[in-house]
Amino acid sequence: MTGIIPQPNEFTTEQGTFTIDEKTVIVVDDTVEEAWNTKELTAFLKDNFNLKLKVTTSSELDNAIRLISSQESDAIGAYSLTIGKKGVLIKGDSDQGVFYGIQSLKQLLSPQSAVQTPLLSFVTIKDAPEFKWRGMMLDVSRHFVPKDSVKKVIDALAMHKMNKFHWHLVDGIGWRIQIDAYPELTKKGAWRKVKENKKPWEDFEATYKDDDGEVYGGFYTKDDIREIVAYAKERYIDVIPEIEMPGHSEAALQCYPEYSCDSNDITGVYCAGNDGSFEFLQNIISEVVALFPNEYLHIGGDEVGKDSWLKCDKCKKRMREENLQNGEELQSYFVKRMEKFIHSKNRKLIGWDEILEGGLPERATVMSWRGVEGGIEAANAGHDVVMSPGDPLYFDHSQGKNELEPPSWGGYNNLLKVYDFDPIPSEIATDKRHHILGGQANLWTEQVKSLSHIQYMMLPRLSALSEALWTKAENKDKEYFIEKLDVQFDRFQELGYNFAGSSLSPDYAVTYNKDTKEFSLALENELDRYEIRYTLDGSTPTMESTLYTDPIVYTSSITLNAQCFRKGAPIGYPLKRMFSTGFGDQCKVTYTNAYDEAYSGGGDKALFDNKYAMARGDDPNWQGIPQKDFEVLIDLGSSAELSYVGLNFYQDIGATSVMLPTQVTIAISEDGENYVTVLDESIATMEQREPIIKRIETSFEKQGVSFIKIFAKNRAELPEWHLRKGSAWIFVDEVSVK
Fold it and tell me: Is 168 annotated as catalytic?
C-alpha cells in the first residue's frame, strides 16, 4: 500500500481489491464544481493508465467511481473514501472535500513506478483537516515569477491538500500588480536597474523597461491575476494578496514620491501625516479586492523604519492631533485607519506580527513570523493568528548542511524540524486556542530565481508541513512519514518536480578514543535511509564503492568522499572532507587575541574538532575575532611527522562584516624555538556579495612538528565600498594537518 501524504486521520484496510478498468464509470452531480473534480480525475486516469472513462449522473451503477458532495460535516474539507466491491465512493462535506478525496485516491494510484495497473485494495478513509489555514507564501517582488510557474507552485500545494496561497506581490524592490489608477506602478515600479556588484535591494532604483542598461522585472496584468485566481479556485486554494504598507514601499514611492515624507529622500515608508497617502492606498485596495475574492487582504506591516516619520512635520502634526506618543503608536494609527477601509470593502486585514506594535486593530488577524511570541500575544488577546515562525517555516532557509546546496537565505530549517512543527504553543490559554487558524511556510526569493529553485526549496518540506497542519497530533507517525517519502520522491520525479535530497546527504561525527588513540568517523543522513557508499582514495563513489555499515576507524589523516544512493542512483550531495589526526587531547592553543565569546566556535579546541563550518555566518562552528588579527600558537603536545597544514576562512559581504584576511602566515617548529615559515600568502580582496569559504593550505617536506604558528591579518576597518561601516571580523575554522 502506497502512503498518503498528509496522513489521513482514520484509515482502515480490508480484504479484497477493486480494479478500475475501461468499463468503470465516474458518477457525479451536474454542477460546475463537480466538473472541476471530474476533469482532475479523468485527466489523471488517462495520463497514468490510458483509461478514458465515461462520466454520468446515473447513480444506480456498479463498477463506478462515485463523487458525492454530501454536506454531512461541519469541517471544511472533510471527506470519506471507501473502496469496495462496487467500486470507489468519495463523499465530501463539500466539493472541496471531494477534491481532497480525489487527491488521496491519486496517491493510492501512484507513482507509476510502483502502480502499473489501477488495482486498489479495499480501504475506508474518514478524514478532515486539523487546521483550516494550511498555506505557503511566495515572494514575487524580489524575483518575478512567470504566470505558468506560479501555477506549478499552486499544483504542488493542491497535491498536498494545502488551501492558502499567500502572494507577496509588492515589496520595496518590485511592484507586480497592474493598478489602473496608478499606471506608473507597473510602467516603472515593476522594473529596476541592474547594478554591477550590487544586490537588487542595494541602491535600488526603479526604472522603465526600455531604459538604457540592463533592466530586470515584470508584472501581472489583471487578466493574469484573474487567470491564476481561477486556477487556484479550481484546486480549492484561496489566494491572499499582499500589498505592503506602510514600509517596504520604495518601488511605489519612487513612482509617486509625493506620498513619501521627503520626496528627495525616499525611505520606503508612506508619510503617515499625508492624507494623500491613505487615499493612494485606498484606491489601490479598491482595485485589488475586485480581483481577489478571498476574505483576507495582507498589508505586510513589518520592519517599518520610523525615523522619517519622527523628522517629518506632517507626521509630527498628526501625532499631536491624534495624541500619539511615539512611532509605534503612529504605526498603529496607520494600520487601524487602513483596517477600517479594508473592513468597509468586506475584507479582513491580516499583517505580520509588527502590527501589534502600538496597539492592534480590533478585527485584525496576525501572522506571526518573528517566532511564535507575537502569535501567543495576539491569540491570548482574542485575535485570530496564523503561525508562520521563521524557525522552522522559512523555506528560503537552507535545508541541508552541504556546501553544494543551492543559494539560500538565513538559517537552517531541515525537513524533520518542519514535520515537528506545532502551531499551538502551550502558552496559549485553552479557551483561546481556537484563534490559531493554522500555519504557513514563507518562501522569500532574495536567492531564488527560477521555478526549479522554488520547487527545490519547497519539496519535500511542503510534504512535512502538510502533515503537520492536516493530521491530528495523535495520528502523526514520523517514522511512517519517512517511509512514505520514498514513494513521494517517485511522485515528484514523475511530475517533473525538482525536489531536495538534502535530508539524504551524508553527515558525519568524529570521536576520539584516548586509550587506543584512534579516531572514529560515523556517517548518517537525516532520514537514516538508503545506502551510503564511500571512498578514501579521492575517487567519486559509485554503487561498487565500499558500503558504509560501521564507523570508519583511522589513525592517520583520511580524505573521505561519501554519497547516498537510492535505487542505484545518487541522491543528495556528496560529502567531501579531509579528517585530520594530528591533534589529540594533549594539544593546547594559545591565542594572542581572544575570540569573541558570541562566536567561540566551541572553545579553544574548536579549530581542530573535525566539525567543518558551513558557508553561513550563523554556523556555530565559526570562531570570530573582531578588528584584531587572528594569531595562535598550537602546541601539539608531542612531535608528529607532518607535511601539510590547512584551515578555512569565511567572508560574507552581503550579510555580515566578516571579510577574508589580507595575509596569512603559517610556521612550524619541532623545538618551539626555531620556526620555519611554510606559507606566507597575501590574500586578494574579493568584493563578491555571495558567501565565500576560502581554504588556505600548504604542503611541505615531511618533518617532525611539535608547534604550529598561524597568523592572519585582519583589515581592522571595513573598506569604503562595503555595505556596512565599522570593524571587520575574521571568521576561521578547522585547522587540518597530515
Answer: no
